[in-house]
Amino acid sequence: MALELLVHGVGGTTPQEMLNDPRTERVTGDGTAAVYRRARDVDAEERPEEYADRPIPEAYSWANLTSGNSARALWLLLLPFMVVNLAHWTRPAATGRATLVRSHGVLVRLVALSLTVLLVAAACQVALDLVAWQCAGTPRCSEGRDWLGFLAAGPGEPGGWWSQPGRRLALAALVPAALTVLLWWLSHRTWSAYESQPPWREPVPQNTPRRGAAETSAGSTERVDGGAGTRTGSETPALCLPGFWYGRRHVARLRAAHTAAGFLTVAGALVAATTRFDRASGGDAVLEALGWGLGAVVVAGATAVLYVVCGRGRKEREPDDTLDSTAVRLLPGAAALVLALSVVHAAWSRPGWVSDGKLPGDATFGVLALLQGALVALLAVLGLLLHRTRRVPRTALAGLAAAAVAMLGCGLGGVLSGGVTQWAADWLGGSIAGPPTVLTWQAAAIPVLLGALLALLCAAALRLRRRADRLAEKVHQNYPEAVRDTSRSRRIGGAIARAGLTDAAPLLVGFVASVTPLLGAVAVAGSWFTGEVPGAAANGAPDVLDGFADTVQALGSYLIGLAFLLFLTWGRRAYRDQSARRTIGILWDVGTFWPRAAHPFAPPCYAERAVPDLVWRMATWPRQHAGRRLVISGHSQGSVLAAAAVWQLDPVTRRHVALLTYGSPLERLYGRWFPAYFGPSPLGSLHQDVVCWRNLWRLTDPIGGPVRLPRVTDRPEVDRGPLRDPLAYGRTPRQPLPAPILGHSDYQADPAFDQERDGLLDRLRGSGLPAQSGPER
């Protein structure tokens, strides 16, 4: 008896669609992720004679892990965190450079920490500076806004208890503090549902010692015993390690540090404002001393946060069930206590304090931009060094992928934080001093970046058109019996040309990542050296240049605010519309496959639930009876999950499983962007470990492609393709209507699918493997 375990790709294909039957039943799992069968196949094991010549089809549905709950639409606001988390996994493959690999991880975690500080600082900028300090302290801004009435003092009036600037700041500090608590809660909630899933453990007889794997180098182990995924004397793929999909302790540790960093950022903003007044006014010496003491505590807390973030990375050799030290677990509470003391200190009566201009800390955003640029530059250097130690063919950006992705994450964080502050300043009106100057300069740089990107896209579109025309001249040659049809050839050639754009993604990412820091440096330099917004004063410049500066600044402010509003609108629509929620789910399907190794506030890793589900299913089903065979059949992102699950199987079970992938991005996307985990060496190891593996692909598929592995002795090649698409060029007696161009979908419609699946089952039957048996778990 054989089982075919189907795993869908992005977009959330339903079990009914996967099994081609409207009547399906859940056989195991829950409402989040489950295995389904057709109603007539639920008791198939009791009727083995009916399935002697065909497998039992099962469908593993994991769509609700990313797009099931409407609240997940809010994850769109966590996009910068998700992107910077990807930078951890895009490092080049390396051999014997453990120190460089650890340094690479530390740098990415520091970039991620800077994004948390940037987001909370932007919330402080809006709540404390723009609203509580500037608008509430300016009668022209506060009048007409009833919700600010209790904070503002009218012209010639003393005002109420809350009208003192320190008390206004203390009350406004609740907003960024609440944002930090919200991020902590979301991370904790998803942590308990995703990272806490126990991985598969090989049953061990009683009184048998169980040993682990000794680490030999970054991403490799030597076999010490018969643990899953190890081979004596050879490099073991990282995805074979038992603790790879169990990040409970690491995410908890990072969550504590980032939460503390958020609270300390708010406390630092309060202490900076109150200490400046106490020192300048020469008032109460006790308050000034307390302010300096709180400032020292904030610095000490920041040092502790840096130690926690840099001191320890992921542990993957074994599932890490131990708890962190008490100091780490109490770090968020201690930071919250410091924030509470800072609030009390700020709310103390200071009768002579009047809010004027901007709060101190205008240079904070410039310092953060410079810090992020320096960290990304160091990442680039490490990436080049690691790539030189082991040059993997087709690696994206030749080792600079991690630096480019980290820069994109910083750019998205800048757009999000700058959009919030710019939009809030525009909403409050022109009677206030406005946001920090560096944000205004960054807004002026955005139209320049978009213009350069538009020129690049136009060039790419022209090149695409030319390539499509060249392909249209030859595409009919793949159908010898067909009569050439110009319009049909153009459609097919255009589909192939558009599918090839995926291979140009590194060029686009590299261009944006290289231009972004240049424009950011111009913005920081402009804000620090001139101290003025672009176009604010002529300074002897020609009127044309001054007008151009004013135009790009206004356009950039509009665009950065529009981008933020689009984020909110898209999230609101996704909250109400299930189809839009599925579209956003596709983004998470690709971006949240990897564990949260760098940023704990990123959307959760669904693979830490999906991979253990698949491993448990594949490991337990063949053990029920001897001689059972299993084909795991993965489409698109499902093929990545299938490969990750097969890697986690113990060697004995792995030899009873065949792998069928189609529309697979294993090499085309994952192999190029994540060479340390899906490069030629790990994929070649997977090919050697499984009895048989076949991969189907099409030229019209924009996502899937060949695996590009050399043929192993006595085994067929992994790749079969390119398959014909469409199946028929024109109208035929068997295809009287035009056949559709399938692209990335409906691989089961191709006769090659059934042929390859049946061939895999036959090879498992004829492999002569010993029957596997064992207790069910």
TrEMBL record:
<feature type="region of interest" description="Disordered">
    <location>
        <begin position="708"/>
        <end position="777"/>
    </location>
</feature>
<keyword id="KW-1133">Transmembrane helix</keyword>
<protein>
    <recommendedName>
        <fullName>Integral membrane protein</fullName>
    </recommendedName>
</protein>
<feature type="transmembrane region" description="Helical">
    <location>
        <begin position="507"/>
        <end position="531"/>
    </location>
</feature>
<feature type="transmembrane region" description="Helical">
    <location>
        <begin position="106"/>
        <end position="128"/>
    </location>
</feature>
<feature type="region of interest" description="Disordered">
    <location>
        <begin position="196"/>
        <end position="234"/>
    </location>
</feature>
<feature type="transmembrane region" description="Helical">
    <location>
        <begin position="551"/>
        <end position="571"/>
    </location>
</feature>
<feature type="transmembrane region" description="Helical">
    <location>
        <begin position="73"/>
        <end position="94"/>
    </location>
</feature>
<keyword id="KW-0472">Membrane</keyword>
<feature type="transmembrane region" description="Helical">
    <location>
        <begin position="169"/>
        <end position="186"/>
    </location>
</feature>
<feature type="transmembrane region" description="Helical">
    <location>
        <begin position="289"/>
        <end position="309"/>
    </location>
</feature>
<feature type="transmembrane region" description="Helical">
    <location>
        <begin position="330"/>
        <end position="348"/>
    </location>
</feature>
<feature type="compositionally biased region" description="Basic and acidic residues">
    <location>
        <begin position="754"/>
        <end position="765"/>
    </location>
</feature>
<keyword id="KW-0812">Transmembrane</keyword>
<feature type="transmembrane region" description="Helical">
    <location>
        <begin position="363"/>
        <end position="385"/>
    </location>
</feature>
<feature type="transmembrane region" description="Helical">
    <location>
        <begin position="256"/>
        <end position="277"/>
    </location>
</feature>
<feature type="transmembrane region" description="Helical">
    <location>
        <begin position="397"/>
        <end position="419"/>
    </location>
</feature>
<feature type="transmembrane region" description="Helical">
    <location>
        <begin position="439"/>
        <end position="462"/>
    </location>
</feature>
<feature type="compositionally biased region" description="Basic and acidic residues">
    <location>
        <begin position="711"/>
        <end position="723"/>
    </location>
</feature>
<dbReference type="InterPro" id="IPR029058">
    <property type="entry name" value="AB_hydrolase_fold"/>
</dbReference>
